[in-house]
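Please decode residue identities from the backbone states below.
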């Protein structure tokens, strides 16, 4: 147990972008309390481990991290707070298994972090995994500068209950933040220099609300409102569910210039039987039809997805159906995972759990196909001229790294500054990134 208020802190986030957003908000909260971000994360007085519970490997990682912090060489063990989805799922179990943990705080309760730190400093173990009726957002301090790209959570939680997934339990029910709160936060981020905002939600396209005139709006309405913000150049959103991919949102891809040509739309499997067992509530065909509409609206759109191989009962033929679907779609980028049985989810108790070796082989075959598609997509941009938003310095001196509209990393050497959007000719493509040259604009 620690017995003084920490002076410095470090937040380490795992998992999805929503955790990255929460991590930034926790840092803002601790700074507002007078704590300073530790210059060296390894020497912080307070370490917040902002955890992910989605697969077993992710969830177990926190325990090895705690072990390392307990015997770190840079000084005494820090005050340790476990936040995020493992905190929600395992609660008081965490300090039982890892007695060095001082604070456990869930994703809907982290606005109470300062009070929990004081409680821990007074020698008590502090736990808060409530899912309060009032949203945490109202209790958080103002946003701070995030750089040229910023995340903005607009929707949280999930009501879909896919049979393999912990998110409905760790994040709670689907809730949309109010229109005005989102628009205000977006304006603040733009005022502090954000050129690109990515709207976030576990099912971001399920966002719904009322605009300032009381009219019902969906995510497309929100995107159009952000489109009107001067200074904002790019809008993205993630992650979407096929069932909430409305015609209005698809139309926005044709009509809203700031909305980038990129869509992450997980499908998980190409087999209708497996999709049904997963409780995905869309079919292979309904998914493909949505993508047809999206491509009709925005022909150059980059498509991305998530896949699970080795769901209980998945046969070789059903796995082949997934490969055929991937061939039919032709993804620009994708994530694929081996099925991981999660405590408390229906699929964990299903018959026909698949052997590890079979999962390994399937994942390898799927990833080989997805990697080839990604490389081909990158290759197809060689010779094109496009706009790159400069995000950070590269590894080599003078080199900068930015993003294309299709979310590809582009390396280039230019005198431009971070946050600039430069015209670039793409010179070459690798599997994971592009190299380009800034075009000097000719005098008009
Ligand atoms: N809300 C989003 C993302 C959920 S989690 C969606 O529905 O698409 C991100 C990805 O993790 C999922 O899309 C899925 O592919 C994967 N995933 C979730 N639970 C998993 C499990 N038990 N085993 C393996 N992968 C899983
Ligand atoms: Fe999990 Fe399914 Fe909800 Fe996505 S839609 S968060 S995969 S339950
Ligand atoms: Fe992980 Fe929670 Fe995100 S389980 S993927 S951090 S919603």
């Amino acid at each position: 147990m620690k017995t003084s208020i920490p002076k410095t802190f470090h937040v380490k986030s795992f998992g999805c972008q929503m955790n990255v957003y929460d991590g930034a908000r926790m840092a803002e909260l601790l700074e507002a309390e007078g704590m300073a971000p530790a210059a060296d994360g390894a020497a912080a007085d307070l370490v917040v481990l902002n955890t992910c519970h989605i697969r077993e490997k992710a969830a177990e990682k926190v325990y090895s991290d705690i072990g390392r912090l307990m015997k770190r060489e840079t000084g005494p063990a820090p005050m340790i707070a476990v936040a995020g989805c493992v905190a929600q799922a395992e609660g008081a179990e965490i300090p039982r298994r890892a007695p060095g943990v001082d604070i456990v705080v869930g994703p809907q309760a982290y606005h109470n972090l300062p009070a929990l730190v004081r409680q821990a400093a007074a020698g008590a173990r502090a736990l808060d995994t409530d899912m309060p009726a009032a949203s945490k957002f109202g209790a958080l301090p103002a946003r701070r500068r995030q750089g040229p790209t910023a995340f903005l959570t607009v929707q949280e939680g999930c009501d879909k209950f896919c049979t393999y997934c912990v998110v409905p339990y760790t994040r709670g029910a689907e809730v949309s933040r109010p229109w005005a709160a989102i628009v205000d936060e977006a304006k603040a981020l733009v005022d502090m220099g954000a050129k690109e905002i990515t709207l976030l939600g576990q099912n971001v396209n399920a966002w719904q609300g009322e605009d300032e005139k009381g009219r019902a709006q969906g995510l497309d309405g929100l995107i159009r409102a952000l489109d009107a913000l001067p200074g904002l150049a790019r809008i993205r959103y993630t992650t979407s569910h096929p069932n909430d991919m409305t015609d209005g949102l698809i139309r926005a891809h044709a009509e809203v210039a700031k909305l980038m040509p990129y869509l992450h739309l997980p499908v998980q499997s190409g087999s209708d039987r497996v999709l049904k067992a997963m409780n995905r509530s869309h079919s292979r065909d309904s998914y493909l039809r949505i993508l047809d509409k999206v491509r009709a609206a925005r022909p150059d759109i980059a498509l991305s997805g998530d896949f699970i191989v080795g769901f209980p009962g998945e046969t070789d033929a059903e796995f082949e159906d997934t490969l055929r679907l991937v061939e039919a779609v032709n993804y620009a980028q994708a994530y694929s995972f081996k099925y991981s049985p999660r405590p408390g989810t229906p699929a964990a108790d299903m018959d026909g759990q698949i052997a590890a070796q079979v999962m390994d082989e399937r994942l390898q075959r799927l990833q080989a196909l997805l990697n080839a598609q990604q490389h081909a997509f990158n290759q197809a941009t060689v010779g094109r001229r496009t706009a790159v938003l400069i995000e950070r310095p590269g590894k080599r001196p003078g080199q900068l790294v930015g993003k294309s509209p299709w979310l590809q990393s582009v390396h280039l050497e230019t005198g431009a500054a971070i946050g600039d959007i430069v015209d670039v000719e793409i010179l070459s493509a690798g599997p994971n990134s592009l190299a380009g040259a800034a075009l000097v604009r000719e005098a008009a």
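Observation: The longest helix spans residues 356-379.
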